[in-house]
Amino acid sequence: MSLFFAGGVVKCIITNYVEELPNGKKNKVVRISLSGGIIGMLTTNPRKALDEAIESGNQDGWNAIYFSEHKTSNILIMMVQILVLVLTLFLWTFGAGYIILMEKEV
User: What would the pLDDT profile of 17-39 be if each residue is shown by its tens digit?
Assistant: First the structure.
């Protein structure tokens, strides 16, 4: 897990899974978390977060081959997000993000 500061908000990049394939390549899944609420709307730049995560992977030899928007489908997590948003007077909540599939030659 690595943290980086971009656009006034700390974003978290979590590598969830790395798999070595029989064709001599490795795949990994990277999740980028973004902030929500008023602070997230004003300071979070999703494109910059994606660019920085992909550039960081490229510097380590990884190539991005697919990315997708990541939304929570768990009702309990959604309720906690809404609760945090209300308790912070709509200023901040943890939000959704993106999932990036990266590939590297072994």
Answer: 687 778 889 999 999 988 889 99
How far is Cα 45 from Cα 38, in angstroms, rounded to an integer? 13
Can you tell me whether residue 53 is helix, strand or coil?
helix
Closest by Cα among 30, 91, 40, 96 to 65: 30
Do β-strands 93-105 and 25-36 pair in parallel, antiparallel, or remain unpaired? Answer: antiparallel
- Indicate yes or no: pTM above 0.90: no
Q: Which of 94, 101, 103 is nearest to 11 (CA)?
A: 94
Count the Cβ atoms, other than its own, within 10 Å of residue 1.
Answer: 8
The strand ranges marked E within 1-106 are: 2-6, 9-20, 25-36, 63-70, 93-105
Phi/psi of residue 89, nearest 5 degrees: 60, 40
DSSP state of 1: -
